[in-house]
């Protein structure tokens, strides 16, 4: 076995990054489609307080939340495989702002449900979203922070 086969270099992952880029594009498109669908369904259902309507909307919201989680996880994944990351990207703060934007995007569905008077759906959806945010911080955020400490991604310029 050659040395290259034993220890692959970190800059030899173009196929992985191309696949990851495709996954992120599809997930972004899918999440946008789901958010638009949820908004249209809540706004146009003739009887949105009906149990079947709320279960359908909750199911779509759950898929939306999961796609946001997987999308955020894929955004963070590249930091593990690249040796030479640009200095601005190495700062932890921009990634944390990205986390906040994703979390606010997920919270928009909960506020949408409240706007249309679907309080029970909003509470259930909010509980699910809070669990996904916790899982995201526990997995994706923690991995990114550990990586930043291991590589000394401090604010030094």
Précis, in short:
It is built from 6 helices and no strands.
Protein architecture, described:
With 157 residues, this protein is an all-alpha fold. 78% of the residues lie in helices and 0% in strands. The protein has helices at residues 3-6, 14-44, 51-77, 87-90, 92-115, 119-150.
Label this structure with key terms.
157 residues, mainly alpha, 6 helices
- Summing up helix and strand content along with how strands pair, one would put the structural category as mainly alpha
Radius of gyration: 19 Å
**Overall shape:** elongated
Helix content: over 70%
Q: Low-confidence stretches at least 5 residues in length (pLDDT < 50)?
A: none
Strand content: under 5%
Provide the residue-averaged pLDDT.
81
What's the oligomerization state?
single chain
Main β sheet profile: none
